[in-house]
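Recall that a protein's primary structure is simply its ordered list of amino acids. Everything else, from secondary elements to tertiary packing, is in principle encoded there. The following example makes that idea concrete.
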Amino acid sequence: MSERLYGPCSSCRDELRASMGGEKREVTAEDYVPKMNVTPNAVASKE
């Protein structure tokens, strides 16, 4: 694959890593809690 057709050049990538790179950190996401704004289906709750 030709580098000129594949994103930034090698020197630009090195410069971006030096200027934008940082320490690796752990990212935690909150648990998904579904929003209950819809009433349950009448057939599903029939007993």
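The first helix runs from residue 10 to 20. Helices lie at 10-20.
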